[in-house]
Design brief:
Blueprint lengths: L3 H16 L3 H10 L6 H10 L7 E5 L11 H10 L2 E6 L2 H5 L6 E4 L12 E7 L8 H11 E12 L4 H6 L4 H12 L16 H10 L2 E9 L9 H14 L10 E8 L1
Parallel strand pairs: 1-2, 1-4, 2-3, 4-5
Antiparallel strand pairs: 5-7, 6-7
Helix pairs in contact: 1-8, 2-10
Length: 261
């Protein structure tokens, strides 16, 4: 009990810090990396390029939101553009909290309960890093796509510093760190595998399952340690270095467009 008390006090303290305007981090970011953008905003813009009015869209691992919570209005507008959108996730409790996708199914990417070729677009936002059998799961996604349909996803880059650090952290500790650094609840933190999270593996996988990589973008995002000013400064310096084209493969995130042949 005594050991848990400092941790709880730490969570309360960081929550209070997060509620205050993070002026120091914003100042540092503007000075050190003014071109830096949040990866979720970049993914949202990418999605908008592929969502069309007569489209059947499947979001895999939809959880309780498609975009960050503070982008709910934009999420609803994006969802409203498609003729039909279906969300699938193994977590029923999370699905019940979803407010923008009305058609939701409890299920796994390993055995999608849909006919062949019934979707024009499949998406996944920060899901691929959790897949434990990407050959099977990507094969299922390609199966339910029509010929020429696209799988557009945002995930962690296995070669980036965040993935390298995450692999060193036990899942239990990762839940605490996610609460401290990102304000996420333990229920929103899942185990990671990173089995299809770099360019060579994705290229090999796409050929194996009858698809092709149409685009792959290496992107940076806001500092993981944004709420810890000394660490945020160091991290932003590193992110600035990663903006150089020859270091792009070490950036933290990937946005990938895979097309079914």
């Amino acid at each position: 009990m005594l050991l848990k008390l400092p941790c709880r006090l730490g969570l309360i303290l960081v929550d209070q810090m997060r509620d205050l305007p993070n002026e120091f981090y914003v100042f540092l970011r503007r000075k050190l990396v003014p071109e830096l953008r949040y990866s979720q905003l970049i993914f949202e813009e990418e999605l908008a390029n592929y969502v069309e009015a007569e489209m059947n869209w499947l979001d895999v691992g939809c959880g309780h939101q498609l975009l960050p919570a503070w982008r709910l209005d934009e999420e609803r507008a994006l969802v409203g553009q498609a003729k039909m959108i279906v969300g699938i996730d193994p977590d029923l409790a999370s699905l019940k909290r979803h407010v923008s996708i009305s058609r939701r199914i409890v299920g796994s990417a390993s055995a999608l309960p849909f006919d062949d070729g019934c979707f024009d677009l499949v998406t996944a936002n920060m899901v691929v890093e959790h897949l434990d059998n990407p050959v099977r799961q990507f094969s299922e996604i390609i199966r339910v796509l029509r010929p020429g349909g696209r799988f557009v996803f945002h995930t962690v880059n296995r070669s980036g510093y965040f993935a390298r650090m995450r692999k060193l952290v036990p899942d239990r500790l990762a839940k605490t760190m996610a609460a401290l650094l990102d304000g996420r609840s333990a229920e929103d933190v899942y185990g990671v595998h990173y089995l299809a999270n770099d360019e060579p593996e994705l290229t090999r996988l796409s050929k194996q399952i009858g698809s092709e990589i149409e685009a792959i973008e290496f992107i940076s995002s806001d500092a993981v340690f944004a709420v810890v000013p000394p660490l945020a400064a160091v991290e932003l310096v590193w992110i600035k270095l990663l903006m150089r084209p020859w270091l792009k493969r070490l950036r933290t995130n990937l946005i990938v467009v895979m097309r079914k042949r």
